[in-house]
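Project standup — Tuesday

K.O.: blocked on the structure for the chain from last sprint. Re-posting the sequence here as requested.
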Amino acid sequence: MKKSRTGTFSILAISPDSKLMGVAVASGSTSVGDRVPHMQSLESV
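H.V.: unblocked you, prediction finished:
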């Protein structure tokens, strides 16, 4: 039986004009929340 490959992929986008940032994650495994990029805002909205 051939073993399937799984992985976690992340992408980060930054807009200097609007000062916004976004992160997206796609994963083939469960419970990856503590292994993916994350951040906390330093400013109140």
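K.O.: great, moving the ticket to review. The mean pLDDT is 76. The first strand starts at residue 8 and ends at 15.
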